[in-house]
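Ligand: flavin-adenine dinucleotide. Inputs:
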Amino acid sequence: MSITTEDIAILGGGLAGLTAGYISGAPVFEAQDSPGGVASSDKVDGFVFDRGIHVLQTNNKIVLNLLDELGVRFTEVTRYAYIYARGVYTSYPFQVNSTGLPISLRLRCVRDFLRKDRLPPPGNYEDWIRSSVGNGFADTFLIPYSEKFWGVHPREMTFEWTGNRVPQPTTWQVLRGAVIDRRTGIGSNATFRYPTQGGYGSIAEALAARQSRLSLGHRATAIDLPRREVRFANGHAVRYRRLISTISLPEFVRLASPVPEEVRQAAGRLRTNSIFVVNLGIAGDLRPVRHWIHFPEPDIAFFRVSLPGHFVDSTTPHGHASISAEIAYHGTPPDPAAAIDRTIADLRRVGLLSDETRIVATSTADIRRAYVIYDFDRRAALETIHAWMRRHHVVPSGRYGLWTYFWSDEAMLSGRKAAQLVMTAAPERVAELVD
Ligand SMILES: Cc1cc2nc3c(=O)[nH]c(=O)nc-3n(C[C@H](O)[C@H](O)[C@H](O)COP(=O)(O)OP(=O)(O)OC[C@H]3O[C@@H](n4cnc5c(N)ncnc54)[C@H](O)[C@@H]3O)c2cc1C
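Predicted complex:
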């Protein structure tokens, strides 16, 4: 076994770990043979597929300057997003684009929106949805969609994570959207950026190219906390003074020793959904331009479909189009061949593919930990685990280290903050990172 000794070591080479490595110059240890984690892209027969839809929806100057410094070029895109419900495509967000809905449903949605202020203050995510958009929009889209997406009912969730993630329309926008089809775009991704070349994974690749020390193929298998030593499956080990960990908290707890029982139990209470992605490369085009579509109805396999070829041309070979369908699940992942067949069948049912469409490439990706579920156990469990990590000079970072709903820009910022913290401050200050 070879052992190296480091002042700072970083576990995980996704966007958070790579940003921490870029800022600190410390070594990054990544399990896979390529960097990027959830934000990487796969190249399949000339098509570029991300791990589920990925678009950059930030105006944060630090992130934009960093991306500029890395030389990643972006195309700015005006969003064309839709919802497919009751057999019709309606522009997203539904609340301000309801003209496509049957008239009786539209009237109910608008009436309930105007009465939403009569509802009691929210105590859970379901209440929050109802008091934000009214019962009509809630029952037609947001509640069934949430259930399909998270795999738990929104009444079992808090709403602390919502922030700007769920668009908040004005009364005027709702009324206008019920009578005029203007495709009103509100929300943080009404326009978005996407890398001009190489898919979303090109961000991680650019970061990886600027690391002073990136060790791929280094899967941590044991973390000895008193000795401050991480051992890897390939026989290497690293001793550290401080560790930044961007791997998921349940995995960290599983690998670490010793682990108090209360920490082990807390880790057992953390939940995410899982997402199985079916990618299709298609000969010809898929007009009209649509970037993504939400599918709230339970009899359709996927909850979301994106068309990467409509973001930028470079994700498909010339004269081709592509579709990525995301299926949420808990427990055992779908069988890949069955998931591809079911996806194609459902895409035909909703009119995105015809019987004549020629599919020239297929691939799948399994994201076992996708979106953190904000249930009522999360906060207390997190406090227990983070306090224990802090005592052992470990700084958690990233989406799954902080166990939060980070978009990629926020994951990068958390890596940056973790690096600055370990370079300048006492590990006890790590609590600041959690919020
Ligand atoms: C389906 C989906 C869609 C998304 N869409 C968007 C979007 O449109 N826009 C946006 O901005 N963000 C989006 N995000 C969020 C974005 O992908 C994440 O915030 C970001 O990629 C998280 O980066 P990270 O470094 O924190 O975590 P990760 O990417 O999970 O990185 C952790 C790394 O640790 C490695 N690792 C795990 N275990 C070990 C081990 N034992 N030893 C060594 N290494 C290990 C993993 O291989 C991984 O590379 C989306 C996320 C998902 C799941």
